[in-house]
Amino acid sequence: QVRLVESGGGLVQAGGSLRLSCVASGRVVSIYRMGWYRQAPGQQRELVAVISIGGTTNYADSVKGRFTISRDNAKNTVNLQMNSLKSEDTAVYYCNGFIMTTVGSSDYWGQGTQVTVSS
Fold this sequence. Notes:
By secondary structure, the protein is mostly beta strands.
């Protein structure tokens, strides 16, 4: 029905940058909210950043000033530019969207992409 596919993860040294992208496909009518969450080993999944359909953003305190979320409504994509990466940013990053489809609205998740920051 709806599929979210992330890309852009990988291995980077501390202080480096990565850009994550996520595209939604399928029976997408509109995407109210898109965001990124992450889950480190042994930890709960946590919010990293979200962006509304109007462009309002919200960030976890731990990433403010280093990460930037953006979206392209025409392409159903959301991006996360991650700068000044730290070892504590190492996690699996998941794309999330609250999406209206032809049969209703619901939360959808991507499969996750690994980000590893070496110190």
